[in-house]
Amino acid sequence: MLLLDKLIGHVVPVRFVMFSMVGVLGLGIHLAVLATTLNVAHVAFDLSQTIATLVAMTGNFLLNNYLTYRDKRCTECV
Fold first, then answer.
1. Which of the ends of the chain has fewer CB neighbours closer than 10 A, N or C?
2. What are phi and psi of 11, to 5 degrees?
3. What pLDDT is recorded for position 12?
């Protein structure tokens, strides 16, 4: 975080960059879980979308809690 702050902190807040990176990773997780449940497990689209959304949301929350908002961490959640 300190290195990112020195490199780009004067242009874009580091917390925003970390939040965006977690969001992009969450999109990848969502698409991977969706493709897996549709093509490998042969689950219906509606259920696959629900599963992928829940997995991506949980992953994003945990990663943001651990990385992005480390100083304001929800200790009861982890």
1. C
2. -100, -50
3. 81
Amino acid occupying residue 25: L
> Alpha-carbon distance 17 to 60, whole Å?
14
Helix-, strand-, coil-residue percentages of the chain, each rounded to 5: 80, 0, 20
Phi (first) and psi of residue 69, to 5 degrees: -110, 45
User: Residue type at 54?
Assistant: L
Asked if 66 and 78 count as a contact pair (C-beta separation under 8 A), the reply is yes
* Residue 52 exposed, middle or buried by CB count within 10 Å (0-12, 13-18, 19+): buried
pLDDT at 13 over 90: no
Chain-centre distance of CA 70, in angstroms?
15
In the chain the beta strands, taken as DSSP E runs, fall at: none
